[in-house]
Amino acid sequence: MSGQVSQFTRRDAMRGGFGAVSLAAIGGMAAPAATLVGSSLLSTSMASAQELALPTPGVIMHPDYARTIAQMAYIWGWPIINMINRRTAITQAPHPGHLNGVLPAAPRGQIAMLDDYIEPSETFVTCPNQDVVYGLGFFSLDEEPVVIQVPDFGDRFWVYALYDARTDQFGHLGKPYGSQQGFYLLAGPRWQGLKPFGITEVIRASTSLANAIPRVFQDDTPEDRRAIQSIINQIVAYPLTEFTGEMKTIEWKKVPDIQGPASSGEETKWVVPEKFFDQLPQAIEIVDPLPGEEAMYAQFRLLLDSAAGDPDLKKVLLDAAIETEAKVIKPFFEWKHNGRPAGNGWNRSTNNAQFGLDYFNRTGTSKSNMFDNRPNETQYFYTDYDASGQQLTGSQSYAVTFSAGQEPPVDGFWSLTLYNDKHLFHANDLKRYSLGTKNKTLNRHSDGSLTLYIAAKSPGADKEANWIPAPDGTFSLYIRAYWGKAPITDGSWQPPKIERVS
Fold first, then answer.
1. Which residues in 111-245 belong to E strands, given as ranges?
2. pLDDT of residue 1
3. Pick from 231, 233, 147: which is nearest to 183 by CA?
């Protein structure tokens, strides 16, 4: 480990250059970062990268210092280890198919698609939606570049969300970007091949570990369920070695199910505190430091080096992981700790899927509702509370009224979804978990306003078309605005109040 630390500090000092951005982020340099770029100050008043003192292996790290670094490492690494463990689970699939008949799963380098909305029994990820048909696949893009097909979607909204190991999106594939039908090559940062003939575009990931989650809008009608099939059957991904220039098709409705572990009724525990620091070296290895992170990486490596031969220090790391999970990560499951206030008791997503150095929102999202889309693709609004600040519960009934012209302004679609206390769907006899653009039978008032009803019991036959059934216990509400117009993206649109009606 000590040799690794020394190698790291030299390598990453050179790779990141410890230039203006890095130094400003690390050490509070007196001169503003902007004044250092291209300046002789870099060579006269600052140490070169090779001369900067960095953590040195062999120190005797005392427990409280180790605990402090371990807590930050846990927060930083939580989303990455989450991704690593999801990849391990999903890529065990022997072929593209549906895990337990519910979740798309495929071997590494491929994807699988659903053929309809995701089932309420899904527990792979919290806060799924029932506006789109999903796909899912994980890749190792340095070792195995992947071709992903884009069929002709016509006027239908679609977006392929491509995530790196940090859960940041890379590339731009979807209707908001005017992407064209064709074959797109997903490649890692160190892949050195040439663009093959017939490939529309090469899209570079920032890490070798990556995944794709296509989303294709579908109306909640039998007609659209039929119409979408020929399109989604052409959403296929495969290793570059299998590329022929011909569009491949898979009839996703007929792919075999894959037997998987039984669900516990809540999201799979993807990060296990007791195993975290055994996995942290892998996270550090597969994710290069962003500008400004070089010193932090060196601290993490020093921590691991110090604990490697010290059982007492290992115990400190274990305790720190368990404590940080309980005191820092768990509270992110409450919506009041996610994003920023959006008005009327709601919060909204911030920096979603382009988190960069925003560890707060990256980790919070990974805990509460992983795999957001970028802000221009989707904005998310969420709350656990009604307009009076009381917890939403099935013992009460609620009305959510969008004034005329005040439904979420979007070029794509919008929806209001109900989640139970585990941020998953509440199974109900209507098989209804959300309402919005996809629904063609919503009843509006004579003035053009729209009221949606949230309750455990029917609000009455005349209102049932606008009713989302609630559980008896606590729940949360969640608005999605796909491809939002300016009032969504600039923050001027506010979600409506959630009023008690009983």
1. 112-113, 132-140, 146-150, 158-164, 173-174, 182-187, 201-204, 209-217, 237-239
2. 41
3. 147
